[in-house]
Backbone:
């Protein structure tokens, strides 16, 4: 329970780590240096926009808004009460004669007639006046008097009627304080209209396309160009929006977590920490390869100046599905298509052009029924993915752009085939390293094992020829049976060849290697004989590890006898010591029972071949004997954990009968053979 809990924490940590790595890999590459240039400088290099940028020109937008604001004239309200209050104000000037007050009144009424305004917003030449009737009248500012000008205007006009300068100063000063404007500025209403006008102005943008030449080497930098260069420098330092990468990080966590859950659903037997680490590693590798080769492809297309939309360019690499299909199972391999097709799609403006082709193409790379028995099979598998991706890319482009030939229809399929070539090279190149690191086995490894030049098999031939012949027959039976039920025939064959290598320790202790009728077990107590037989399983495991045999082969060595009872020595012990004094456990093999189909097949092949070989009566009912031997193994529960169904066992039995009947058939006696036999009898 503690180990399971620990593995769960490790898995969650791996999910987090791989999500961080995937997000980091997807950060934009930025290797272009953009010099800082001011208006009037001479550009030392050609400057191209490395990205497509659309940025608001704040200054231009403000100027457009100011222009719209200037078109809306300030609003003033006509206030006639200011003129009516004039008589009351003049009565306070008691030091003046009635004639002088009338002169002042005429001057001031001329001002009101002209129009006195309270304040004037800067930059306006015309105003709109709203009369009490509601009618609007437009006037030029220059036609009106501003309140701030009243005192100086009064001094000038009074000088024509009054000689005493001190008196003029005093009257002008007092009147300037009591005069109210008859055109009053409606600030709140005017500002509302200004804001409405500004809101209708759309922002002004500066748009730079990727690859667009901003300035050529040797040209003088204009203010407009300097602004564009500054935009590019800011874009470079700012990078992409952080929210995009936060989303990508969270999406990566979800996809890696989904992988773990689907692992347990689709292939529970393959769900372990080692396989999860492997899967996460190769998915992250795929993301890195796609990102890196896509960057190189875009750089190359930019250098060649091809008219291709760089936002649609990518190089699909699907090593993870091929690796998983080779080392784990095809069901697990299909799970890898989710993160590999979704996470890298963030490099495109239209992710669907990546997700759909890569998801389906990657599945095609792992559903090929052929086994990976040579390197050409890997290239063919990768190429099948590339072809499917190419076809889907063209179909999606036709759906998007119609039946017209575009550069993308040529470039994208070409890059897809290039990606399949990369997939094949990477898989073939990294397979030995991954096999070593993760202790995986492949059909290519099994092909090398069944080569008769293997050191262990050469030892077998020389030291235990009888066991070797038995093992060859077991391998033949196991291979044929595995083919029949759809198991791994190469694994079964290799397991059959190596299952009895433990007998090299004491080959003469086994009947198939004994000559001249001498059997050492005739002189040994049954428990000692049982211990010798048990030891060949343990020594076989030890020898397998010494020669670095794959784990699956070592598992077959350990499991090929399961926990079977050594019946001959068990019954011999009961006869010698009495049933109550014999411990059955000492006469059983250590196990474990077969844990996978190929191990179960080897167990059945070993049981049947050994029993049929030892039978002296050549006229036995072969089919009946094979059926009995298989049923005894099934009833003993030895195959309960192997994954073999009753249908599988029935097919295996048929194959065994077919193969063994061809070997143990009755030979036709020819006349010469009959004469020879008669001579032998007489002698």
Residues:
């Amino acid at each position: 329970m503690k180990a399971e809990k620990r593995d769960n924490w490790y898995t969650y940590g791996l999910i987090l780590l791989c999500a961080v790595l995937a997000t980091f890999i997807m950060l934009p590459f930025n290797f272009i240096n953009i010099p800082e240039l001011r208006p009037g400088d001479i550009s030392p290099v050609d400057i191209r926009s490395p990205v497509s940028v659309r940025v608001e020109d704040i200054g231009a937008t403000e100027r457009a808004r100011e222009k719209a604001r200037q078109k809306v004239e300030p609003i003033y309200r006509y206030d006639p009460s200011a003129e009516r209050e004039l008589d009351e104000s003049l009565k306070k000037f008691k030091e003046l004669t009635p004639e002088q007050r009338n002169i002042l009144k005429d001057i001031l009424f001329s001002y009101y007639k002209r129009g006195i305004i309270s304040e004037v917003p800067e930059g306006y030449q015309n105003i709109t006046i709203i009369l009490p009737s509601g009618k609007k009248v437009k006037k030029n500012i220059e036609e009106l008097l501003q309140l701030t000008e009243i005192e100086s205007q009064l001094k000038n006009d009074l000088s024509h009627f009054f000689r005493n300068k001190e008196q003029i100063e005093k009257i002008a000063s007092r009147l300037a304080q009591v005069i109210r404007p008859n055109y009053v500025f409606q600030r709140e209403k005017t500002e509302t209209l200004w804001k409405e006008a500004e809101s209708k102005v759309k922002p002004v943008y500066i748009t730079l396309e990727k690859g667009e030449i901003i300035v050529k080497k040797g040209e003088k930098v204009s203010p407009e160009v300097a602004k564009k260069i500054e935009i590019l420098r800011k874009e470079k330092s700012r990078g992409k929006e952080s929210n995009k990468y936060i989303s990508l990080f969270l999406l990566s966590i979800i996809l890696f977590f989904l992988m773990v859950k689907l692992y347990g659903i689709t292939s529970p037997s393959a769900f372990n920490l080692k396989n999860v680490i492997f899967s996460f590693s190769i998915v992250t590798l795929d993301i890195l390869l796609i990102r890196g080769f896509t960057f190189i492809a875009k750089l190359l297309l930019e250098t060649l100046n091809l008219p291709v939309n760089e936002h649609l360019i990518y190089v699909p690499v699907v090593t993870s599905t091929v690796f998983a299909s080779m080392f784990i199972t095809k069901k697990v391999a299909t799970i890898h298509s989710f993160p590999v097709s979704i996470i890298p799609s963030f490099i495109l403006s239209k992710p669907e052009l990546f997700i759909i082709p890569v998801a389906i193409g990657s599945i095609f790379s792992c559903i090929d029924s052929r086994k990976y028995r040579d390197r050409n099979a890997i290239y063919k598998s990768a190429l099948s993915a590339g072809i499917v991706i190419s076809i889907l890319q063209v179909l999606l482009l036709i759906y998007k752009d119609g039946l017209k030939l575009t550069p993308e229809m040529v470039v994208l399929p070409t890059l897809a085939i290039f990606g399949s070539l990369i997939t094949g090279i990477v898989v073939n190149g990294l397979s030995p390293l991954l096999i070593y690191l993760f202790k995986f086995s492949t059909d290519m490894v099994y092909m090398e094992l069944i080569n008769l030049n293997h050191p262990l098999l050469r030892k077998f031939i020389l030291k235990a020829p009888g066991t070797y012949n038995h093992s060859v027959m077991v391998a033949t039976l196991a291979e044929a049976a595995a083919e029949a039920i759809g198991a791994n025939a190469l694994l079964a064959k290799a397991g059959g060849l190596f299952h009895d290598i433990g007998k090299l320790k004491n080959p003469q202790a086994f009947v198939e290697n004994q000559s001249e009728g001498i059997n050492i077990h005739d002189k040994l107590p049954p428990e000692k004989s049982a211990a010798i037989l048990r030891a060949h399983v343990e020594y076989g495991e030890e020898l397998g590890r010494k020669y670095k045999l794959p784990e699956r082969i070592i598992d077959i060595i350990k499991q090929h006898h399961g926990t079977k009872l050594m019946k001959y020595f068990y019954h011999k012990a009961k006869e010698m010591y009495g049933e109550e004094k014999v411990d059955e456990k000492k006469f059983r093999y250590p196990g474990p029972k077969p844990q996978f189909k190929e191990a179960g097949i080897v167990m059945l092949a070993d049981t049947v071949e050994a029993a049929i070989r030892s039978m002296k009566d050549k006229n036995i009912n072969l089919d009946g004997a094979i059926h009995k031997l298989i049923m005894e193994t099934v009833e003993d529960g030895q195959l309960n954990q192997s994954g073999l169904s009753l249908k599988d066992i029935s097919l295996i039995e048929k194959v065994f009968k077919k193969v063994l009947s061809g070997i143990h058939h009755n030979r036709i006696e020819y006349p010469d053979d009959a004469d020879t036999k008669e001579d032998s009898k007489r002698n």
Observations:
- The radius of gyration is 48 Å.
- The chain has a mean pLDDT of 85.
- Strands lie at 47-48, 53-56, 75-78, 116-117, 126-130, 136-140, 145-146, 183-185, 205-208, 213-215.
- The CA atoms of residues 289 and 317 lie 7 Å apart.
